[in-house]
Design brief:
The chain has 350 residues and is an all-alpha fold. It has four domains: 121 residues, no CATH class; 40 residues; 63 residues; 81 residues. The chain is 64% helix and 0% strand. InterPro entries: Homeodomain-like_sf (IPR009057), SANT/Myb (IPR001005), TTF1-like (IPR053078). One of its GO terms (cellular component) is nucleolus.
Length: 350
Amino acid sequence: VDLDTARQELEEFIPHVKNISDSSIKKMAGRDLMRFKEFKKQGMAVRFGRFTQKENKQIRKNVEEFLALTGIDSAEKLLFTSRYPEDKDTIHRLKTEHHFCEKISEGIPRPWRLIYYRARKIFDPNNYKGRYTKEEKEQLKKYQALHGNDWKKISELMSRSNLSVAMKFSEIKSAINYGPWTEEETQKLMSAVKDVMRRKLTTAENPGSLSSLEQSDTDLWIDREQLYQPLPWTEIETKVGSRYWRQCKQKWNSILTSKLTRGQKLYRGTNGLRTKITLIKRLYETKAEDASEVNWDELSNAIGDLPRAYVQSKFYRLKVSFVPLWKRKTFSEIIDYLYEKTLPDLEEKL
């Protein structure tokens, strides 16, 4: 099926198909389209959002049956094959021979990718590992000295994800300033972001989009949609020099939000309470099982036309401030707690 036809056929099952990349559409055409049509014949609609207990049970059943069929001796080996390099070739061959994609998603009317991610979350023994200990930080430094930035290798040695070890090393590798941002640091950050945006626009399909940026050497005048896109924060961190990537990201979001809302104080006093209440209600309504299932752009627009990353950071503050032992809870459990326990208190305070 060609790309346009696949997109049109998938639109019947996935309302937000226009926001999905071409590469994802190609994968869904292969893995999901026939499944979706079969579910339609059975009168079953394609589902998104939070996984039900019945679906979680079906995923466990599918994984266990596939293990029994192939003789692979653990779900971790099946779903995290890179952790077992000596068995990798055998496992990949068995997955191909026994149609892993079809078997793992059997009976569940959802996109295969979401089912696969859910299965990995259910069966990952390294899930919810929490903060790095002092010993782990020292270990990370030693591994980086030995293996450089081979984060895949280091992640296997530390039983942490690639992204986790890369970002944690970025955070601890040098002396960092934790005080208020100086004017010089802020200017460095603005300059670093502008350099990155200029490069992104230069390599964009429409080089003409650069024209507005070239009009000024002191401020950033580009389409707001461009500002919503993810930025290479470790690169920006290097340019700033005195702050680690997370600080740079938070500072940029505060600058951006201040510009986009013209200084409106959305998170203070009564407005702050209303915004927290709206955010909790909207997140609860999504019935999302995982943060990756939330349409943050839509949510951000509903709350106050803010950058998605800013709203995500506000959700982070909510869970840290109000949800006890939040690191041990799933995303949906955190949302349920905020809705059932925190929301009534906030509404009463308002």
